[in-house]
Amino acid sequence: NFRCTYCMPKEIFDKHYPYLSHNELLSFEEITRLTTIFASLGVEKIRLTGGEPLLRKNLEVLIKMLAKIKSTAGEPLDLTLTTNGSILRKKAAALKAAGLHRLTISLDGLNDAIFKQMNDVDFPVTDVLDGIAAAQESGFTNLKVNMVVKKGTNDQEIIAMAKHFKGSGITLRFIEFMDVGSSNGWNMSEVLPSKEVASRIHEVFPIEPIEANYPGEVAQRWRYVDGSGEIGFISSVTQTFCHECTRARISTDGQLYLCLFANEGFDFKTLL
Fold it and tell me: What's the rounded Cα separation, in Å, for the pair 238 and 151?
């Protein structure tokens, strides 16, 4: 799952952009029906993402509905959510109580100026860190933090981020910056390959690769040699994983996209 910060630049998608009306969005009931159908066909993992999913009003109601759906094996679906963490302090306990299993938090640096430059947001890093703490207090385990690395912008934050989360029980994952989409420029000069990120970390905190949890896992898993935790690398540009991709996306207006780069989707809302 890739965040939309970089494919939806604010200078284009501003307050004047003709966004969808509320009745064009999938309702919670429609999302639940689609998820039930997908689960009956073998889907086992559902991720709520965005944009920022916590801005959706009463999201915990949707999570409670989805948490009741079972896989073909009769087990609850792996229900997870990706958030920028800005209002996670307010939402963490309700999300956990509703049945959300896991959380991934996006954080591109610990320095406020660099963080805001990367994300063009008006909230500080402390809000995100406080949201992560709230998630831990609410009982979430197996937390992941995603750091998109943009060469020349926030790559100086790599070691600071590794040091901050090392030994915390939180898995930090480094994602290659993807300058993609019809409004972007495919600028490879801003891509810092995962191999170089791993090399920088290894010089300070020795790391070693470990086996994937399952076939098709997006992140390459590494661990600190001293046993103080795990990190991951998502090499979405230099080591593409299209050949083993098992993911699809449902957009907020009910379009099914089988690829991040798809220009057209399949209209499920009309079918519903």
Answer: 14
